[in-house]
Every structure is written in structure tokens, then in C-alpha cells.
Design goal:
The complex is a heterodimer of chains A (292) and B (411). Chain A is of the alpha/beta class and 292 residues long. Chain A has ten helices and ten strands. Chain A has one domain: P-loop containing nucleotide triphosphate hydrolases (Rossmann fold). The two termini of chain A are 37 Å apart. In chain B, the strands form three sheets. In chain B, strands 1, 4, 7, 8, 9, 10, 11, 12, 13 and 14 form a ten-stranded mixed β-sheet that branches. By secondary structure, chain B is an alpha+beta fold. Chain B folds into two domains: 178 residues, no CATH class; 172 residues, no CATH class. The chains are: A alpha/beta (292), B alpha+beta (411). Bound molecules: adenosine-5'-diphosphate (ADP) and magnesium ion.
Chain lengths: 292, 411
């Protein structure tokens, strides 16, 4: 039984003529321990998919089964508690509350759980140590670099020991060095058993994932398992087509791929058959070494 | 959980001091006016009580005008506060004094005349002061000691001598014991021969500060300013204090009869001043309370406004908080806490300012306001209530924000 199971989930925004189909009968199973990279052009529904899985959004149609329980029709209160206990979010930007210091930011989910201040600060300090920010506990967010902010955001996502980490373009605003540090961190979480879903525009970063999902117009048009440490062949193709290395080009490249694979129904069938588990142990070393 | 909310709320108030202060202004004004009024009332009540206890309940004053109504048993039923304040004038005359002198069972009949202009000195006029003409028994009747020098005697009714209140000595003569110096009343010279001990503020009724008065023989005063003086009170003491009630009825009947049956004078027992004062205060309190209510309303709306602004400015923050697991209720509590902290701090500032106002009143006026603990608690309670009332709508608005929408808005 997969940890996450979306069954024909649709999400519509707006009414009448102004209706947008952000997700179009998407089905997706994610096993515990997978690192899924989600790619696709802007507006293809990646964020909507993440919010759906992260219980921030609820499907207009379809069902969502999380750990064997349907969560599509839960009340806001119950969803908030599931988010708090099972899911950790990392966004592209403005992750931290500017008026709280790093430690208080990281401890926030524990406050909502009702844990006493001394204990939650202790726990938050431990997680910050784990992400390498032990010496930045009392800094205000504006005094941190972009990479440090993302690491603090990851620490906050981790503080409640969630099963699932959802990262929506976590490196979208970072330079390549900071990106690598953040990706190392996510990779390590993956290694220790966390399930990770990450949206990215950078094909290079699919190295860290063991599965890559491509979206287009609210549908999953391609879904392939890739060995850790290797750039996904599709993304690679995009890179060869467009050798320049800016985020914008990555975007253009991915869009080009999408045009190459427009038959979503076929790929969906393909995806269900090819459910082989990736071998992660050998590849991991290669990845970490390459980064240092 | 809560402690965290209040901590962040407080730091928010601190980081936006001026904005917060402006927001709290209405609350502060409301709280200060409520506390000041109530403490003034409390102070006056205490003074009157003290005075009544000191003078005993057998001092009867006859005043012009119909200040109050009584039922058959002599209990006060209705008070006209406007007449109760200060010295009334009009319906008392020399004839009434004569009527009272003819009554039996009275130990003292002591008339008091008023010349409302103050004394002069070396060509300058003491405008805050006033002049009272009394007879020689006045200090004994009101049980007030002459601290320095002495009062005039029955044989000196025609002499131009004066006994002055403490303020007159300080303000006009600028010395503590100006005995032997002269002041002028209507151009005539009077020699100072005594200074009264400090008067309580209610000896002759509300709003009369006898420390600013010059006391001269009534006859002498009439000699120099006959046309300008008014008979404002007749003080009476019964021979037997136990007969006070009967004597009051007797005095009232005699005077009403001599006024042709018209009830245009009032006979008051000293302790009844308290009731009169109370009634006057009720009027004042109603007035100030409505001001306070309006300021609290304005303050509450101010808080609601700033909270609404804050909620929309912090939409992204709300999104983040919800994403990491805050329930709607927790978001609501956070914003409620902020509103309550704002109004609570306003209340505290109001209480502190009230003490300042109190202090100033004690120094510069004759009032002795008293701030009691229950008043403080009530004021703080009211400010909390305002915060809760006007914080609710913004807090509910914050709690209901859709996290998706909230996150789409940039931080
Ligand atoms: N709250 C919303 N209201 C209206 N349209 C929305 C809303 N959220 C997303 N959409 C639309 O849904 C589509 C998918 O958006 P999104 O999931 O953010 O795409 P991506 O993250 O891949 O760029 C877009 O066309 C977007 O305009
Ligand atoms: Mg997006």
C-alpha cells in the first residue's frame, strides 16, 4: 500500500468561463521513502499538486488516501493537525516569519502542537544543529543568506519528525553553491527514510531524486524512476538541446520536453507498469562526493 | 501556546510604539476619565464623611432655594444638584435671622453673608478669594480653630478686623502669619488679626473653599458694602443634639411660615451634605461616563481598524503558519491576543496617567481624589473587554483565510 495515493484528483479554480483546471484527474502513488522530483512548465499545476498532497488544498473531485485513510473530505481542523504532525513544507521564498528569530521560527510547529517552550526550543536547537545552523539560532531571518534561510526552513519542516517533506522550488532563488548545500540536506533526509516531493526547474537536481514526474496542463504526462546520482534522461535531453545554464533556459527546456510527450494517457499506463525500486546505496556516494 | 502569543503580541506593540500609542489613545482617554471621575467622587465622599463626623450631625444649615425634597419622615427624595453646588443666594433675609432668634431650643444662630469680591492689597485684588461676614460664634459653630491670632468677639461686630484663610495668607500676603497687616474691602481697610487652620473642603457645602475666604464681622461688612452682600447661609445648632430632627422641622416650619407658606429655603443636616454631594456626583458621573464610553468605543474601533490592517498585511504569514499546522482556532487566538494586549497596555497606560491626573488635582485644586483598587480592576477589566470585543472580527477574518490564497501573496 503506497503512503500517498491520489485517485483521479481534479482541482478547479474559478467559475463558468473563468474556470481553470489546475489538476486534471491526476492519479499518483508515492511509496514511503521515495524522493520524487516534479518538473513541468509554469502553470502546469505543480504547486497545486504539492498543496494537495500537503493537505493545504482539497480536491474538487477525486480521492486522496494518505496512509490508508481517505483525507479528501477532512475538516480544516483535522487537516491542520495532519499537516503539523506528518508533513513538512519548504517554499521557494518568504519561508520564515521576519519578526521571529531563527530558533523561534523553527520551534513554531511545536508551539502549535502545545509543547512547552523549554522543550520546543531545545528540540528546535537540535534540528538547527542538524542542518548546520547551530551558530545562527538567535539571528533574525533578514541577517541570513538565502541558502541559510532555506536550511532553516528545512529545519522547521523537520522539527515535528514528519513522514513527508514537500519542497516547492526550494532552490529556485538560490545560487548554485547554496542549491547544492540545500540538496545535500534533502538527500540526507531521503537517506534516513523521509519521503520527499520536490518541485524543481533544474534538470541537474534530478540527480538526487529516484523518480521524476513531469506535468503539463494539470496532468502528469510522464513519470519515470531514475537511478540516484544520474540526471533524468528526459531532463538531460533538455539540457543537450539547450546547453546554456540559466533557470529560464531550464524552463524552456522542460517545456520543449513537454511538447515531445503530449500523450499523457499512454505515459500514465507506462508509469504504473514500471514500478521498480531504485538502488540507492551505490549512487548516493557518488552524489555526495561530487558535491564536496 | 498562549504565552508565545502574548510574547509576540507584546514585541509587536513595542516595535510599533507610535502607531500603537495612537491606537490606544481612545482607550487611554476613556480609562483616565472613568478613573478620575470615580476617584473624585470617592474623595469628595470621604471628605464629607470626615467633616460630618467631625462636626457632628447636629450642625444644621439653612440655605436659600429649594435644593431638595423630603418625604413625611424627613428622608431626602429628590435633589437639585445645580442649586446644591457652591453658595446659593436669594431667598434668605435679615428677617429670617430674627425669626430664628425667636425660636426656642437653639444654642446658636449664626448667619453668614457673602461679598463675592476678594480682598485687595496695595491696589491689587485677590480675585480668587471672597469675603464672608459672620458673627463671633462662627468658629465655635463650625468647630474650626483659629491657628494664629484670634477671632473677633461679640463686642467687636463694628470693627474693621479680619481673620483669613490659609490660601489668602499665602497668595495675597505671601507670608504665613500676616497678623497686623491691612487688606482692603471695598476700599476700606481691615486689619488682619487671625489665620484659620486649614479648612476641609465641605465645611459650608460643596465647591466652597474656605481657605480662600476673608472673615470679617457681618455688621462691619454690611457697613462697607451693604448693597453688595448676600445672606447665603444661617448656621444653627440645637441645644440638645438628640433633638436635631425636631429642631430641623421646627426651623423649616417657622421659616416657611414667615415666607408666606412658600418652600423657598432648605434646611440641611451636616451629614446630608453627603447625599447632596452624591447626587451631584451622579450627574457628573453620567456626563463623564458617556464621554468615557465614547472614547472606549473610538478606541475599540481604532483597535479593530489596526487589527484589520495587520491581518491583511500579514496574509502571507498566516499562510505560512497554517501550512506548518496552525489550526484556525490557533490563528484566531493569536490575533485576539494581539488585540487584547493592545487594549490592555492602553488600560495600563490609562491607569498610570490617572495617578498623574490625581496627583495634579491634589496639588492644584482643593479636591482630594482617591483611587481605590476596585476601580483599577474595573478599568483594566473594561480595557480587556474592549480588546476582546473589537478584536474578534479581525481575528475571525485571519482565521478564515484560505492558506493557498494566503501563500500566493508575497511575504
Ligand atoms: N487560487 C487560484 N485561483 C485561480 N487560479 C489558480 C489558483 N491557483 C492556481 N491557479 C491556476 O492553476 C494553474 C496551476 O497553477 P500552479 O499549480 O501554481 O502551477 P505551477 O506551480 O506549476 O506553476 C495555473 O493556471 C494557475 O493560474
Ligand atoms: Mg509553482
Amino acid at each position: 500500500m503506497p503512503l500517498i495515493s491520489l485517485k483521479d484528483v481534479s482541482k478547479l479554480y474559478g467559475f463558468g468561463d473563468a474556470t481553470t483546471v489546475a489538476l486534471d484527474e491526476v492519479s499518483l502513488d508515492v511509496e514511503a521513502g521515495e524522493f520524487v522530483a516534479v518538473m513541468g512548465p509554469s502553470g502546469s499545476g505543480k504547486t497545486t499538486l504539492m498543496n494537495m498532497i500537503g493537505l493545504l488544498d482539497r480536491p474538487t473531485h477525486g480521492d486522496y488516501i494518505l496512509s490508508k485513510k481517505s483525507v479528501a473530505k477532512l475538516r480544516p481542523n483535522q487537516r491542520a493537525k495532519l499537516r503539523r504532525d506528518r508533513i513538512g513544507f519548504v517554499f521557494q521564498s518568504f519561508n520564515l516569519l521576519p519578526k521571529l528569530n531563527v530558533l523561534d521560527n523553527v520551534a513554531l510547529p511545536l508551539m502549535y502542537k502545545g509543547i512547552m517552550p523549554v522543550r520546543r526550543l531545545k528540540r528546535a536547537a537540535a534540528v538547527l544543529e542538524r542542518v548546520g545552523l547551530a551558530d545562527r539560532q538567535y539571528f533574525m531571518p533578514r541577517a541570513l543568506s538565502g541558502g541559510q534561510i532555506q536550511r532553516a526552513a528545512i529545519a522547521r519542516a523537520l522539527v515535528n519528525d514528519p513522514q513527508i517533506i514537500i519542497a516547492d522550488e526550494p532552490t529556485g532563488n538560490l545560487d548554485s553553491t547554496s542549491s547544492l548545500v540545500v540538496m545535500e540536506l534533502l538527500s540526507e533526509l531521503h537517506r534516513t527514510g523521509n519521503t520527499i516531493l520536490m518541485v524543481t526547474h533544474n534538470p541537474e537536481l534530478t540527480r538526487y531524486a529516484d523518480r521524476v514526474v513531469y506535468m503539463h496542463d494539470g496532468s502528469i504526462v510522464h513519470d519515470q524512476h531514475t537511478p540516484l546520482g544520474e540526471v533524468s534522461p528526459l531532463a538531460n535531453k533538455a539540457r543537450q538541446l539547450f546547453p546554456r545554464r540559466t533557470e529560464e533556459d531550464d524552463l524552456a527546456g522542460v517545456s520543449a520536453i513537454m511538447e515531445t510527450f503530449p500523450q499523457k494517457t499512454e505515459t500514465a499506463k507506462k508509469r504504473r507498469k514500471s514500478a521498480a525500486k531504485p538502488k540507492r546505496k551505490t549512487t548516493r556516494k557518488a552524489v555526495t562526493r561530487a558535491k564536496r | 501556546m498562549l504565552s508565545g502569543n502574548y510574547k509576540t503580541a507584546l514585541s509587536r506593540v513595542r516595535s510599533a510604539k507610535w502607531q500603537s500609542l495612537l491606537t490606544m489613545f481612545g482607550i487611554i482617554v476613556g480609562i483616565v476619565s472613568v478613573i478620575t471621575t470615580v476617584s473624585l467622587g470617592e474623595g469628595i465622599k470621604r471628605q464629607v464623611l470626615q467633616q460630618a463626623n467631625r462636626l457632628g450631625n447636629d450642625l444644621i444649615t439653612v440655605r436659600p432655594g429649594k435644593i431638595l425634597s423630603r418625604d413625611k419622615n424627613g428622608a431626602i427624595t429628590k435633589v437639585n444638584p445645580a442649586l446644591a453646588y457652591g453658595f446659593g443666594t436669594g431667598s434668605l433675609s435679615e428677617q429670617d435671622i430674627a425669626v430664628l432668634h425667636r425660636q426656642k431650643g437653639l444654642k446658636h444662630v449664626s448667619p453668614v453673608s457673602l461679598l463675592s469680591s476678594g480682598p485687595g492689597l496695595d491696589g491689587s485684588q485677590y480675585n480668587e478669594g471672597f469675603t464672608l461676614g459672620t458673627d463671633a460664634s462662627f468658629p465655635e459653630v463650625v468647630e474650626q480653630e483659629v491657628e494664629f491670632g484670634g477671632y473677633f468677639t461679640p463686642g467687636e461686630e463694628n470693627r474693621q478686623v479680619a481673620v483669613i484663610g490659609k490660601r489668602v495668607a499665602e497668595d495675597l500676603f505671601q507670608e504665613n502669619i500676616p497678623i497686623g497687616r491691612t487688606l482692603t474691602i471695598r476700599g476700606q481697610e481691615f486689619i488682619v488679626r487671625g489665620i484659620f487652620k486649614e479648612f476641609g473642603s465641605t465645611t459650608l457645602g460643596q465647591g466652597v473653599d474656605l481657605n480662600k475666604a476673608v472673615f470679617v464681622p457681618r455688621t462691619a461688612l454690611n457697613n462697607v458694602a451693604k448693597d453688595a452682600t448676600q445672606l447665603v447661609q444661617i448656621l444653627v445648632r440645637p441645644e440638645d443634639p438628640k433633638q436635631t430632627a425636631q429642631v430641623m422641622t421646627q426651623v423649616n416650619n417657622a421659616l416657611t411660615a414667615s415666607h408666606g407658606g412658600q418652600q423657598d429655603i432648605t434646611v440641611l443636616r451636616q451629614d446630608e451634605n453627603l447625599l447632596v454631594a452624591n447626587d451631584m456626583l451622579r450627574l457628573l458621573t453620567t456626563f463623564v461616563t458617556s464621554i468615557a464610553a465614547i472614547s472606549l468605543l473610538v478606541g475599540g474601533i481604532g483597535i479593530m481598524n489596526i487589527m484589520l490592517v495587520s491581518v491583511s498585511e500579514r496574509t502571507h504569514e498566516i499562510g505560512i503558519r497554517k501550512a506548518i499546522g496552525a489550526t484556525n482556532r490557533q490563528i484566531r487566538n493569536q490575533f485576539m491576543a494581539e488585540a487584547v494586549v493592545l487594549s490592555f497596555v492602553g488600560g495600563i497606560v490609562g491607569v498610570v496617567l490617572s495617578y498623574l491626573v490625581n496627583f495634579i488635582l491634589r496639588i492644584y485644586t482643593n479636591f482630594q481624589p482617591v483611587i481605590t483598587l476596585p476601580v483599577i480592576f474595573a478599568a483594566v477589566g473594561v480595557s480587556l473587554l474592549v480588546g476582546i470585543t473589537f478584536g474578534t472580527i479581525p481575528a475571525i477574518k485571519a482565521a478564515r483565510k484560505d492558506p493557498i490564497e494566503a501563500l500566493r501573496i508575497g511575504g
